[in-house]
Amino acid sequence: MKIVIADDEPLVRVSLNSMIQEMETSWEIVGEAAQGEEMLELLAQHQPEVAIVDIRMPKLDGLEAIRRGKAVSPRTRWIILSGFSDFQYAQQALRLGVDEYLLKPVVPDELEKALHSVSIQNREYAYLLNCQFENRLISLIHGLTSPAAEPEDSLLRTGHFQAFVFSFDSPRDARGLEALKCAFIDDLRRSVPHYLVHGLHLAVFTLTGNEYVAAAVWRPERREARQSARSFFHRAEETAIQYRSGELAVTAVLSGECDRCDRFLEHLREIQDCAGFHIVFGMNRTWTFERVRGLAEQDERLKLGRLLLQLASDYRNRLYLNYQHTLEEIRNHLAGQPGLVLTEEMRRHIRDYAKLALDVSLPDGDWGAWIRRLNEWGEQWLRQHADAAEPQDLVDQMLRYIDRHYMKNIGLNQIAGELNVTPSYLSALFHKKTGTTFIKYLTRLRILKAKELLLGTNLQIRQIAEQVGYHSTRYFTRLFVDMVGEYPSDFRKKTRGEEHVGP
């Protein structure tokens, strides 16, 4: 946490500096000022988390310096120092949003207590802002909003972007795999607050059902923000390494650093288009975007990887007929590509994947032997599960689940786990039957419920947002405007007014 000290008395500055240095914390004093104008320059330069300000300074007193400083560094928290126990000063300070008010001479224990209190408040505030930003980024990626709707100085329009894309493979059924993924993602999400600094936002979210994204967006002029993003990515990679085991393979792709949101979205799409590449070229490791983009030229090998990925999905979802159809596609693909060459390393990667995702050991030999073994495995599996019918009416079950739980923090992965199918399969099935994506359907339902509450109750906008599943009123309002074309309050006034118009 960065701190600026502003006091016209050198001995006070030295004393405060000494007290803070002796505290067992990672706090850093980035500048000292003898008067208010110097403090404003330090605020603009360092954007500190905390400013300790004397209420009486020459030229520009502490209260006026804070008024101006809040515009220069809006996320800074304030601790006022005063040699006067004058209640009038305390009142003015509180009206300005000062967090702590300490009397001189400052007692070390009181100063440390105040710094701890401000530090906690600052982290909570930063995390709240980050959650709001994450919601906006998710909406943008899923096509619910556009960068053009953002203010010109929004990080979504001016920031630099980069992300890890994680995919998961496991021998467990859909519910078991979802439990492993949730544990991994929860660990990653818990680390987010530790890396938040001024000028940086972090987000962890799902792309399809099988892929998760850990993204960082930062202001390019903030070197500390970029460094903190690097540290977060290092933590994300370490978390992936910790979870890699015989029960879970975690393959990661680090996108390129993008200076525009549209380029970032294009990187994510290119990574998605290469789904299944890791089956042929190596799973359970970290890849760079440049390397994956180079593999995209090997189209026939990539198609083989996608078919094997689909085969494992059919197996996990207990879709025997689909399994046989996909196996036939693999056979036809290989027959139509007599010149397709797989190195011994690629063959080993495919055998490793088959063992992990299908629980089947492929023999040494040509592709014919592999196809026969996969066919035998499918028939054996069918005999073992002959009494288990393939999933029926999954979309109907999903729609009922959404209708009951739309006001909660639900996701496609969670619902797929409840139904014991893979998220990617459920996502495709849902889109085929409804013609839309899960995110768009859920958003439309929530906005529809919000419109009902706007017309049928006198609840405040904040209360309505919470009742339909949004804990940020600003985010709810943004979505409502994008989908309805007007603010919730205007919709309520206009519609109620029209209902009561008489002859």
Number of helices: 22
Could you tell me the radius of gyration in angstroms? 28 Å
Count of all domains: 4
What gross morphology would you assign? elongated
Fold-level CATH name of the largest domain:
Alpha-Beta Plaits
Second-tier CATH architecture of the largest domain: 2-Layer Sandwich
How far is the N terminus from the C terminus?
Answer: 65 Å
* Major sheet characteristics: 5 strands, parallel
In total, the number of strands is 10
Structural class: alpha/beta
Provide the helix percentage.
55-70%
- Classified in CATH, the superfamily of the largest domain is EIF_2_alpha
Kindly provide the name of the CATH class of the largest domain. Alpha Beta
Strand order of the largest sheet: 2-1-3-4-5
- Please state roughly what percent of the residues sit in beta strands, choosing from under 5%, 5-15%, 15-25%, 25-35%, 35-45% or over 45%: 5-15%
Average pLDDT, to the nearest integer?
87
Poorly predicted sequence stretches spanning 5 or more consecutive residues:
499-503
How would you portray this structure in words?
The longest helix has 34 residues, at 108-141. Helix content is 59%, strand content 12%. It is α/β, with parallel strands linked by helices and 503 residues long. It has a five-stranded parallel β-sheet with strand order 2-1-3-4-5, with helices on both faces. This is DNA-binding response regulator.
What is this structure, in a nutshell?
By secondary structure, the protein is an alpha/beta fold. The chain is 59% helix and 12% strand. It has helices spanning 10-22, 36-46, 62-72, 87-95, 108-141, 155-158, 174-191, 223-243, 261-273, 277-281, 289-295, 299-316, 320-335, 344-358, 367-384, 394-405, 412-419, 423-434, 438-456, 461-467, 473-484, 488-499; strands spanning 2-6, 28-33, 50-54, 77-82, 100-103, 160-169, 200-206, 211-218, 249-254, 286-288.
